[in-house]
Amino acid sequence: MSARPTDPARIAAEGDGPAARPRAGRQPTGRAGRPPARPLAAVVKHLLLALLALLAVAPAFAHEMSMAEMQLREMAHGEFVWQWTATEKGEVGEGLVPRWPEGCTSETGLLHCGRDGLTGAFAIDGVGKKYSAALVKVFWLDGQSRVYTLTAAQPEVHLYGAADDGRGFGEVARAYLVLGVEHILTGVDHLLFVIGLLFLVGFNRRLLWTITAFTVAHSLTLASSALGLLVLRPPPVEATIALSIVLVAGEALHRRETLARRWPALVAFLFGLVHGLGFAGALKEIGLPEQHVSIALLTFNVGVEIGQLFTVGVAFGLWRIASRWPRLERLRTALLYVIGSVAAYWSWLRIAAIFA
Fold this sequence. Notes:
alpha+beta, 2 domains, six-stranded mixed sheet, 10 helices, disordered N terminus
């Protein structure tokens, strides 16, 4: 019967002896006596829980901007009554302070603008904090009305004392370009659909065709709906948008050769038609200037595309960084489950809203 090995190195390798067992009350240490790094799985778990909590409480921001609404009605030349008529949260007009044009004086519910009328720069302080935008509806003495939208990027609008919009081509183009970018970057459901497509297709040549198909589709329905050629109720549209995210996330989770994997551009096109109706809903709330409808529609859509390409660019940068650590590949599955779960939750809420 041979003797057991006494070489300390061999004893440690075989899991026996003091070299293999840390002393009681002491933590195992890594190099240079430092404690070992937190396991990657624990870090991933905490990140995913934080992301899930953030997205789950964001259904109100999913694809509509938070809006406040003000009405002004001209009762006599230069004399107006005004009030906050609706807000999506909190007390009416809370945190918003109107800054009237020079020459106008305000008291509770009344506005006096004198002989020049409501003419000049009008702004609302506080837009962009609690509310994404403020809708200002002005009903003029001649029976015409106009809607003006103020945002953090454009907190001021110029009024001309009448319904005619004196804004020039360039001013309208800049305003609606910014609104388009803001809408896509604050529309969590649209962003999640685009991210789901990235997981499904990957960063390859097919991605170009997929994103192009999505762009063409939502441009068609955005224009058709904004011009009144296609009208659908918002609840079914919003529910379908949420379900589209569930489908894309589910398809990206497995490797089977389904229609979505063989023809991702077709899937992106079909669902892009629905997402375009969602964009049109936001644009309808904002309103289109009558004298520059085409340029406002075009630049809003271009703004949406800029925000979309920005999202793809950021995702590509993160993908390049993550590709240096193969172990981060497990994040892909976890993130897709988070996206799909949140979208499923939104789907239930929005389907319930259809029958409410």
